[in-house]
Design a protein that fits this description.
The chain has 17 helices and 34 strands. It is an alpha/beta fold.
Length: about 675
């Protein structure tokens, strides 16, 4: 398996490369799902790409947002510019953009973004025709489905192994869009899931806290399972994280893959809100209760001397701690204080003192969230490119250097060498001079050395020329010279009109098209719904869930085949179940090109192409009943009436769809 590490900036990219990444992924300008960070631009992209390629590391560029009609040309041009600079492949969500790349530039490698929400074999089969080489599976994809995809397709599988876990199903979170006009599918997520919520039933408070804040992914103990399932690439989340996080997580996964000891504390210090394998084994326990980094617990407050301005805090710890480290103090699960200890003092073995203006109490647990000494050590690690250089220094001939780069022997020549009168050039002169480089670790083989003289200035120039030529030779093959094309768009006209979505068979509607979206899918109910619609001269459709497992697809296919009812497809898996399809809001039709590619009547959740519907704010694959009410499937208390209330008073209703497993929705 390969390691794919995040690179939010050039320093993070270098940390990924130094610590064992096989590939890195990054974003550019506003065309990525992390546009709240200072990432790369076309102006500095080449520097990062060349550095990665020098070390044999592949570069993936995330262009993984939805695009409006007037943005597609710029997006396509950006892909061409980036590919010409050497970017190896592109991670894309927008199907319209995918179709344009596949049509005009079939030589460009594209990967299906996790935002496409591909989570089963049928979804993979639906997108294969667009030329994807790799699919970044939705985080909700369980182990058995990964195996099924691998055994029945030729697509590469990329799977998240470490980092933040979205509580909502990939690509189908609209809460930030609807409440803040900041779409997660446009890279502007406000992370409202990390806020406090109150779980209520019919107005009665059941639980308060960070009820939608997910733990972080950690698959370090499940690598053998991932490998056996057929995962090709392990993805580390975190383009918004600091360079030390990238370094530490990359290094520990590199160690794990190569059979070396893994330091769990280093992973936790990188970032964690508690860890989980997510949905790998099914509907897992993913809710943390913490909304931010908790680091590692290193001690407990034993004494506090409160002063007029500064308070002395005494605590014990078995860990060696350093000044300038950052600590958090917790009371239970409640975060009380965060401080950087510039005056941390070890007063005896395992005993420490620090001063602060903040209020700290005896009994508070002490968490280390940034180890200053470890951070410095991590960021100081550098790995240079090994290169073997042969040197020929022959009297009366140019000083020459030869090296191999990508199977090619490269020659670099300097000035004609003159006989030495006093200080002949020595092997040590050459070896010490060629050590002066930040990128290469040169191993010199002096093939011929006469008694010759060369001024230091010219020798330095020769060295720089050799390394410049080496850098060019190792990086040039990835670049291309593709020409830009001007795209032609047809304005989308196939929007679905005069429709209504109902949940109850008894609901009366004047709409011509009626979409049945039941809590529980039942053949008798679907037949009854279809009969009612036909008797009233209306066109019936069955709304399909955006998440299903293999057994669910078989069950839904039986209903469709038996009733001959049309469907609303909210995920790619549904596109091949029947020809009578409406494209649902879950498929995120955002531009006319996407609408044209799908070539079906469509409904939108965010774009201005047609009549918008209020799609659920979130799709939840964990069970709130288990997470917050200690329930089980055998004694499930769910019924209508459960709500999540935000501190600002906004109420989100909890709804459920039940197939072989339950999926919950906040509406």
């Amino acid at each position: 398996m390969k390691i794919l590490s995040p690179a939010g900036n050039l320093e993070s990219l270098k940390m990924a490369v130094y610590n064992g990444a096989d590939e890195v992924y990054l974003g550019i300008n506003n065309f990525n799902a992390r546009n709240n960070i200072d990432g790369f631009s076309l102006e500095n992209l080449e520097q990062g790409v060349d550095f990665a390629h020098l070390h044999g590391v592949k570069v993936n560029l995330a262009i993984n947002i939805l695009f409006a009609d007037d943005e597609l040309q710029n997006a396509l041009d950006t892909i061409v510019d980036a590919r010409n600079l050497g970017v190896d492949c592109f991670i894309i969500q927008d199907l319209g953009l995918v179709s344009l790349v596949h049509k005009h530039y079939p030589e460009i490698e594209i990967h299906a973004s996790t935002q496409m929400a591909i989570h089963n074999l049928e979804g993979v089969k639906a997108i294969e025709k667009f030329g994807f080489k790799r699919v970044v599976l939705a985080r909700e994809t369980p182990l058995e489905e990964i195996k099924r995809i691998k055994e029945n397709s030729n697509i590469e599988i990329e799977y998240f192994a470490q980092g933040a876990l979205c509580v909502s199903f990939s690509g189908n979170c609209y809460i930030s869009s609807y409440l803040c006009n900041a779409s997660g599918n446009r890279g502007k997520c406000k992370q409202l899931c990390r806020l406090p919520y109150t779980l209520e039933f019919e107005g009665n408070v059941l639980k308060k806290g960070h009820l939608l804040s997910a733990k972080d992914f950690n698959m370090i103990t499940r690598l053998e399972d991932l490998k056996n399932a057929g995962v090709d690439v392990l993805k580390i989340e975190g383009r918004a994280r600091r360079p030390a996080y990238v370094a530490m997580t990359t290094r520990e996964y590199y160690n794990a893959i190569h059979g070396k000891p893994v330091n769990d504390d280093n992973l936790k210090l990188g970032f964690n809100r508690e860890y989980t394998p997510g949905y790998f084994d099914g509907n897992g326990s993913i809710i943390s209760g913490f909304h931010n980094h908790i680091g590692i617990k290193v001690g407990k407050v034993e004494k506090v001397n409160n002063g007029k301005k500064f308070n002395e805090v005494y605590f014990s710890s078995n860990r060696v701690l350093s000044q300038k480290s950052t600590f958090k103090f917790f009371r239970g699960k409640e975060e009380k204080n965060t401080l950087t200890a510039f005056d941390l003092t070890q007063i005896s073995k395992g005993k420490y003192k620090l001063t602060t203006t903040q209020k700290v109490s005896v009994g508070d647990s002490v968490h280390l969230i940034l180890d200053a000494a470890l951070e410095d050590e991590t960021l100081s690690f550098v790995k240079k490119k090994n290169i073997k250089i042969q040197i020929y220094a022959t009297r009366g001939k140019p000083l020459k250097a030869y090296f191999d780069a990508n199977g090619e022997t490269v020659e670099v020549m300097s000035y004609v060498l003159e006989p030495a009168a006093k200080q002949p050039l020595t092997e040590n002169d050459l070896i010490s001079n060629f050590k002066k480089n930040e990128l290469f670790d040169a191993e010199l083989e002096i093939k011929h050395l006469d008694s010759v003289f060369i001024p230091t200035k010219l020798l330095n120039e020769f060295r720089r020329n050799v390394f410049d030529k080496a850098f060019e030779s190792f990086t040039k093959n990835a670049k291309m010279s593709l020409k830009k094309v001007e795209i032609q768009q047809k304005i989308a006209k196939n929007t679905l009109k005069n429709f209504e979505i109902i949940e109850n068979l008894n609901k009366k509607t004047d709409a011509n098209t009626v979409i049945y979206s039941p809590d529980v899918y039942d053949l008798k109910d679907v037949n009854k719904f279809k009969t009612i619609c036909e008797n009233e001269g209306k066109t019936p459709y069955l709304d399909l869930p955006n998440f299903v497992l293999e057994k669910d697809i078989k069950f839904l296919k039986e209903i469709i085949d038996e009733t001959k009812i049309g469907i609303v497809a909210n995920n790619y898996y549904a596109l091949n179940l029947t020809d009578n399809v409406i494209i649902g809001a879950g498929l995120n039709v955002y531009n006319s090109t996407t609408a044209s590619v799908l070539d079906k009547p469509f409904i939108t959740a965010e774009s201005d192409l047609g009549e918008r519907i209020n799609y659920p704010y979130m799709t939840l694959r964990h069970c709130p009943m288990k997470s917050h009410l200690n329930a089980s499937c055998a004694n499930c208390p769910y019924k209508d009436g459960y709500t999540y209330k935000m501190d600002n008073g906004k109420v989100l209703k909890l709804k459920r769809k039940k197939l072989s497993s339950c999926t919950f929705y906040l509406i």
